[in-house]
Amino acid sequence: MIDTIIRIAVLLFAVTIHEYSHGKAALSLGDPTAKNSGRLTLNPIRHIDPIGAVCMYLFGIGWAKPVPVNTAYFANRRKDTILMAISGPVSNLAAAFVAGLLIRYYDMPVDIYRLILVNMLLLNIGLGLFNLLPIPPLDGSHVLENILPSGLASGYQKIRRYAPIVFLGILIADHYLKFNIFGRILSYPIIATAELFAGPKIFHLLRIYRF
């Protein structure tokens, strides 16, 4: 029960800073849409996507409710969209980095403290790296779309309307049919990043708490 409560609390924190960062970045780039719609807030309830949250809890992969963005406000639409898109994953990696430093230099043999830090490290890295995948509707798809030449970007936009349904189907099939596609893609980067941030001590904690 304690493990579940900690996992849910850390997940709420991770998705909240992720979406808040999108809104804050958009505002700094001239777009007040998120602020005007009440999404520039650290209240996690405002950012939860029910399906994304359930998928994150069950499958270890998920997403939050995207903040509304109007790219017409951006001075340089393509560059500013990329900056806005990567701000969410960057915020998660920054939170994971802080957790890693605490594990590396301020470890205490207290189970709750360690569980919070390990969950903070792994969930934030997982959410950050997962959202960088160039698959609609993830943040990485906005980066890819604005890097591509205009002709290819236009074609890429056309698949967006179908992508979330297809993506959810792949996610469910990946889990229940044991293809482990996302696990194969993300497992090594997550562990490598966790070791980079927290040092070799992370492997000891993963064994203790059976992650």
Walk me through this protein's architecture.
The chain has one domain. Helices cover 71% and strands 0% of the residues. The chain is globular and about 55 Å long. 33% of the residues are buried.
Largest sheet: none
Strand content: under 5%
Extract low-pLDDT stretches.
none
Order of helices and strands: HHHHHHHHHH
Q: Please state the CA-atom Rg, rounded to the nearest Å.
A: 18 Å
Task: List the defining traits of the structure above.
single chain; 211 residues; mainly alpha; 10 helices; 71% helix; 0% strand; globular
Question: What's the short story on this structure?
Answer:
With 211 residues, this protein is mostly helical. The protein has helices at residues 2-28, 33-36, 50-59, 77-105, 111-131, 139-147, 150-158, 163-176, 181-198, 201-208. The chain has one domain (2-208).
Give the SSE layout.
Elements: H1 2-28, H2 33-36, H3 50-59, H4 77-105, H5 111-131, H6 139-147, H7 150-158, H8 163-176, H9 181-198, H10 201-208
Helix pairs in contact: 1-4, 1-5, 4-5, 4-6, 4-9, 5-9, 6-7
